[in-house]
Design brief:
Elements: H1 3-10, H2 12-34, E1 46-52, H3 60-73, E2 78-82, E3 94-96, H4 102-105, H5 107-115, E4 120-123, H6 127-138, E5 142-146, E6 158-163, E7 193-197, H7 200-214, E8 221-233, E9 239-240, E10 248-252, H8 257-268, E11 274-277, H9 286-298, E12 303-306, H10 308-314, E13 322-334, H11 342-359
Parallel strand pairs: 1-5, 1-6, 2-4, 2-5, 6-7, 7-8, 10-11, 10-12, 12-13
Antiparallel strand pairs: 3-4, 8-9, 8-13
Helix pairs in contact: 5-10
Length: 368
């Protein structure tokens, strides 16, 4: 349990009135968009939002990346719209391309643009503005709203809502500041499907919670994991399977560092000599790299391992010691059957949306 969660539980009686007020404000906001009091832009192509009900750590970026891969595999031009957390470009909208500066583009947009150079990645807190410009300039066939569940200023045709296991237990309907949720549970009716980052055994153990808390919505719930497939040298791009049992230093600046360490230990078969943890979205400096490399030498490490997001932020400061995970998304069982995975559901859902567009003279009816 995080320090923030502990504080929230300790001060729950004081924080709950503020959480109640927050819930009321978010219900009013949703009503205003639904009734047209607050205006929203309707994209002309299939638009899917990847978001969550609470804050971070659900795997939104890997799922957005999977959708970009899917689009490439199906020869469809994809455009991703993101606010770009901690991005500081000179102007908006900002078209992120491989080689851009992380401080301008934001770490996650730059990582996605680097891994998917065929896609269009636009950073802009006003996503209706970047969307309109992107449609005119790039003519995409699929739009992905990154962290878009609450961004109702852009209408979408499919809402993918990612959950954490704790969302179904102690965090259920616990709104900020008393909990981690951004909206009350009623907002979940806007979801077309739920995804949860968990293994098959853990997923099976959560099925009773799904039935109790989400069953009335009649939406599919899919599981997925983020699996290492190898190690890639940050500087040269060389790929290898492991470090041959040699000592390595682990460096993370992500939202769930303990999870990364468990993944590294499980994949390599042994834990790092040391794990240096920075805050999520940390901006690395030359002093940070000097400290990391000094620690690696002091502990006899022949390699420094980081996540792809950290590698993007470290950029040209990386020496020959730096390696990153090669990762892929692996879908598992779902609430509609062990063999009915998200990828097959998405194929069908996308075809349904295209059929709807064709039958309505090239127009799509957006969801909520």
């Amino acid at each position: 349990m995080s320090d923030i969660t502990t504080l929230q539980q300790s001060f729950a009686p004081l924080l709950k009135p503020f959480a109640w007020a927050n819930a009321k404000a978010m219900r009013l906001r949703e009503w205003a968009y639904r009734r047209g009091v607050m205006k929203a832009w309707t994209p002309p192509v299939v638009t899917v939002a990847v978001g969550n009900i609470g804050w971070g750590g659900t795997g939104k970026t890997p799922i957005a990346g999977w959708l970009l891969n899917w689009a490439e595999a199906h020869n469809r031009k994809a455009m991703l719209l993101t606010r770009g957390y901690k991005a500081h470009p000179n102007s908006y909208p900002y078209h992120v391309v491989p080689g851009a500066l992380a401080e301008e583009a934001g770490d996650e947009p730059l990582m996605l643009a680097t891994e998917h150079p065929e896609a269009v990645v636009l950073v802009d807190p006003v996503r209706s503005r970047s969307g309109k410009l992107g449609v005119k300039q790039f003519d995409p066939q699929l739009i992905i709203l990154d962290d878009g569940f609450q961004h109702m200023a852009v209408k979408r045709h499919c809402n993918l809502v990612l959950l954490k296991p704790e969302d179904l237990s102690h965090q259920w309907n616990a709104l900020i500041p008393a909990g981690s949720w951004r909206e009350p549970k009623e907002a979940l009716h806007r979801a077309d499907a739920f995804l949860i980052k968990i293994g098959p055994e853990g997923f099976d153990s959560l099925l009773p919670h799904f039935d109790t808390l989400l069953g009335h919505l009649r939406r599919p719930i899919f599981s997925f994991q983020i699996i290492p497939t190898g190690l890639r040298h940050v500087v040269t791009g060389q790929v290898k399977k492991n470090f041959d049992k040699k000592n390595y230093l682990l460096v993370t600046g992500v939202g769930a560092p303990d999870q990364v360490e468990r993944t590294a230990k499980q994949y390599l078969g042994y834990k790092p000599a040391k794990h240096i943890v920075f805050r999520d979205h940390h901006t690395y400096t030359k002093n940070d790299v000097f400290r990391i490399e000094s620690e690696a030498r002091a502990r006899g490490c022949e390699a420094i391992l980081c996540t792809p997001k950290d590698a993007v932020k470290l950029g040209p400061m990386c020496s020959d010691l730096f390696w990153k995970f090669d990762l892929r998304v692996q879908f598992g069982p779902s609430s509609i059957g062990k063999e009915n995975r998200f990828d097959t559901w998405w194929d069908r859902r996308h075809e349904q949306l295209l059929s709807q567009k064709a039958s309505h003279g090239g127009h799509l009816t957006p969801g909520e």
